[in-house]
Automatic annotation (TrEMBL):
Protein name as catalogued: Putative aliphatic sulfonates-binding protein
UniProt-listed CDD domains: PBP2_SsuA_like_3
Keyword Signal attributed: yes
Domain of life per record: Bacteria
Protein species of origin: Mycoplana azooxidifex
Keywords: Signal, Transport
Function: Part of a binding-protein-dependent transport system for aliphatic sulfonates. Putative binding protein.
Length: 470
């Protein structure tokens, strides 16, 4: 055994891990959700870039061991849980809500699973959302009373919807009609006018609007309830092979670092594999993104698991309790941070969005205020152009369109929540002084205009107003 391996073994032993691997074939079976794109650093990217192979232990008790790496892709967390219970998977990636169900399902089966890391999330709740058909006149959740809302049952978006309905003071059984509908089915429903609203998880509340079949009227950040996607492992597997769990997490850390450095490049890779367009992938994974990639167990994420358990009880999906303090296990991710030369405690205290370090493409000045940033991804350009303000970006967009240069997407930041928006779906306030502020909701734009002055415009109108003012 090398000195490094010996020291690693000592460290793992001090954490209470016991390693029993001998020269054998060891299965590493991982359930992924490729279309749930914020899980990419725990699944798709590790698989496609073969990062796990880089970190799997080869020394000591793993000397001569062969690895049988198995990847299985699913569209939601529930079937991953089923496969884990059946002994067909060792790891799985899913959100807080199905993750809590995973823990309870293991207990019901006389087993135990561990929630070992977040991958991406929002302490404010962004990521889940509610959409209406593109032609609908509905602009806010308040207008959905008495309407039919579909949602993937037992998903994190289901939990969000129930909390949103409760916040409105409504009865979830009498004031709205909630029906189950999987994401792969829901895409056609708004287009055909078969439903009045649909609630869903990452990336569908953005993907459906991007594809022109729906319009987002509610973001999970309005519920102010933390949400995240993360990874779980079978507890017996983790006890037997702790070094493999750490290896998986080290691969996740490298995947996170790679996409942080080159978000456009890896958004394109995610698009190629998942079928979710790169423009939507960047919305989540790019700087100042809709969610923040975060591999630390912030108190808010622990609370999200506890809230999910309570919601499952409310839905009468379980009458059991789950001890979050033992279900959420940060020993492995802490060890992975240490092995990767990273400071876990510093990351745990960091609540900032993924930073944007760039200069305004129009003025050349460094961008210092992320709240007013706008971005343009020009067709044929590998990197997104960054602007310090929406008005700067809109003026550049005017020039590009006049030249006939195709533009892939226009992004802007919500003035109040700070979440990244698809410009074509946003509402804008164009003030008399020329400033342009962006908002997800028309009602918030109207409130801002009333308080600060200016006209409320949609994307087409704000582009025209910029042309008229130059």
């Amino acid at each position: 055994m090398t000195l490094r391996a010996h020291l690693a073994a000592i460290t793992l032993a001090t954490l209470g891990f016991v390693s029993t691997a001998d020269a054998e074939t060891i299965r590493v079976a991982i359930g992924t959700q490729d279309t749930t794109i914020n899980t990419a650093t725990g699944g798709l990217l590790i698989r496609e870039l073969k990062l796990l192979e880089k970190y799997l232990p080869r020394d000591g008790k793993y000397q001569g061991a062969d690895y049988d790496i198995q990847w299985k892709n699913f569209t939601s967390g529930a079937p991953i849980t089923n496969e884990q219970i059946a002994g067909k998977l060792d790891f799985g990636v899913m959100a807080d809500f199905p993750g809590a169900f995973n823990g309870l399902a293991h207990i019901n089966a006389g087993r135990k699973s561990l929630f070992i890391t977040p991958l991406s999330g929002s302490v404010g709740g962004s990521g889940n959302g509610i959409v209406v058909p593109a032609g609908s006149e509905i602009q806010s959740l308040a207008e959905l009373k008495g309407k039919t809302i579909s949602v993937p049952f037992a998903s994190t978006s289901h939990g969000m919807l129930l909390r949103a309905v409760k916040a409105e003071g409504w009865d979830a059984e009498n004031d709205v009609k909630i029906i189950t509908q999987a994401p792969e089915v829901a895409g056609a429903a708004p287009k055909a006018g078969q439903i009045e609203a649909h609630a869903d998880f990452v990336p569908f509340a953005e993907l459906f609007p991007w594809r022109g079949i729906a319009r987002k009227i509610y973001d999970g950040s309005q519920s102010k309830t933390p949400t995240f996607h993360g990874a779980l492992v079978d507890a017996d597997y983790a006890e037997k092979y702790p070094e493999i769990v750490v290896a998986y997490l080290r691969a996740a850390i490298e995947a996170d670092q790679l996409i942080a450095r080159e978000p456009e490049k890896y958004s394109e890779l995610i698009a190629k594999v998942s079928g979710v367009e790169a423009e939507v992938d960047y919305l989540f994974h790019g700087p100042l993104g809709l969610q923040t990639r975060d591999l630390t167990w912030k108190p808010e994420y622990r609370q999200a698991v506890a809230t999910a358990i309570d919601t499952l009880k409310l839905l009468k999906k379980t009458d059991r309790s789950l001890d979050v303090s033992t279900f959420v296990d940060d020993r492995f991710i802490r060890e992975a941070f240490k092995a990767s030369g990273l400071d876990y405690e510093a990351a745990l205290e960091n609540y900032t969005q993924l930073p944007l370090e760039a200069k305004d493409a129009a003025t050349g000045e460094a961008i210092s205020d992320g709240t007013r940033v706008a971005q343009i991804w020009v067709e044929g350009e590998p990197l997104v152009r960054n602007f310090a303000s929406a008005e700067n970006a809109l003026k550049s967009l005017k020039v590009l369109e006049a030249e006939g240069t195709p533009v892939r997407v226009f992004y802007t930041q919500d003035r109040e929540s700070g979440i990244k928006l698809l410009g074509a779906q946003a509402w804008f306030v164009h003030a008399d002084g020329g400033k342009v502020e962006a908002f997800l909701l028309k009602e918030r734009a109207e409130a801002w205009a009333k308080a600060n002055g200016g006209s409320v415009l949609d994307f087409g109108a704000v582009k025209a107003s910029i042309v008229a003012s130059n």
